[in-house]
Amino acid sequence: MVSQAPNRGSGPGLAGDVLLIFMPTPDAGYSWPDAGWIAATEARYPGLQVRWLPQKDPATGKPRTPEELPAEVWEGVTLLCSSWAPPARLIPHVRFIQAPSAGADRWLLHEAYKDPRVTLCTGNGTHATQIAEWVIGVWLMWRHRFLAFAEHMKTGSGFEKQDAHDVLESTGSRVGILGYGAIGRQVARLCTGLGMEVYAYTRTERATAEARRDESFRVPNTGDPAGELPARWFHGSDAAALNGFLAQDLDLLVVAAPLTAVTTGLLNTEQFAVLGHRPASTYVVNVARGPVVDTAALMTALESGQIAGAALDVTDPEPLPADHALWKAPNVFITPHVSWQSQKRWGRALEMLELNLQRMAAGEPLVNVVNKEHNY
Asked: Which Gene3D superfamilies does the entry link to (predicted)?
């Protein structure tokens, strides 16, 4: 089937647009597709047609890919909100893509992304709260030795008060946040509440108050929109600049940078050696993407004691094979890329879409637009 070009004007407004929503169906708390939301949205924007398809096949209950949707679903689609990047042939007329994910990495090689007429927006900020909670959770788990006590519970032995003599509190500790976007800013907020000192690292310099502001989607009363929390800011796009940041006696390093060609392997043998100038002192947490950290270098750092330990919600490869040596590396805690999940996650994704539809209809700048030069 050849998709017909939609009949819509060239100015602001959504008349003639076709919006396709294809996202996972939450297990509880939502009735998706939401017929009421569809009706209200079409009424709010006359001439807009909304199609909402659940990821799970209604007949089988099994997840399906974009290619498995009926062909007519893709007819004339100009606006897309999807957790998956469909083949370019299915969306020849698309002009706007709302990705629920924080990063744009799954779109970077897509033909639609390369088209200068197509705007891609991410879900940056919609899951900053739960990811930041995951970061603080694993940090406190490490500092308070929760895993050790959990093991004592299983065996019923060695469960003594003196085992807690090396418990460490967070007050006065220093956290370095590599990538100071929505996630990094909420981590900074929580760390500040624990009495920690925050250092931030960004690709470009943030020397002015205006440069330090963040205009991403933000849950009310969260984050650091004005960029006021870091005690020190660092910046750069080369190894020397990054190493200077890593040499700042960090107790906690939170990796929250987007995955691009530049950030792939950003933390490797050289960087772990810098962290190792204080052996077994820095706890490394990765909530970015697995390839941002070189896995072999990380394992060496764990095994040699260059770093204190690591908590990984993402790995390279991902999923991590059952026989991979990283599972048995010392002082490592791994979860299967779940830090972004919460009962409010998909509702916020819908809020993000609503906000951009509103701005698009009014001819206003959209939120979370990906910079195609830097790919985030």
From this structure: NAD(P)-binding Rossmann-like Domain
What is the 3-state composition of the chain as percent helix, strand, coil, each rounded to the nearest 5?
A: 35, 15, 50
Give the CATH architecture of domain 18-124+343-362: 3-Layer(aba) Sandwich (3.40)
Which is the CATH superfamily of the domain at 127-334?
A: NAD(P)-binding Rossmann-like Domain (3.40.50.720)
pTM score, whole prediction:
0.90
Phi and psi, residue 22, nearest 5°? -140, 95
Closest CA to 237 of 261, 273, 213: 261
Q: At what angle do helices 146-155 and 128-143 cross, to 10 degrees?
A: 60
Tell me how far CA of residue 204 lies from CA of 161, 164, 375, in angstroms.
48, 42, 14
SS (H, E, C) 224-252: CCCCCCCCEEEECCCHHHHHHHHCCCCCE
**Domain segments of the chain: what residues?**
18-124+343-362, 127-334
pLDDT in tens, 56-115: 888 888 889 999 999 999 999 999 999 999 999 999 999 999 999 988 998 999 999 999
Give me the residues paired with residue 367 across strands.
none
Q: Which long-range contacts (CB under 8 A, 24 or more apart) does 296-304 make?
A: 297/267, 297/268, 297/269, 297/271, 297/272, 298/267, 298/272, 298/326, 298/329, 299/325, 299/326, 299/329, 300/269, 300/272, 301/272, 301/275, 301/276, 302/329, 302/330, 302/331, 302/332, 303/329, 303/330, 304/276
Matching fold, domains 18-124+343-362 and 127-334: yes
Closest CA to 78 of 348, 355, 360, 350: 360
Task: Assess contact for 255 and 280: CB atoms under 8 A.
Answer: no
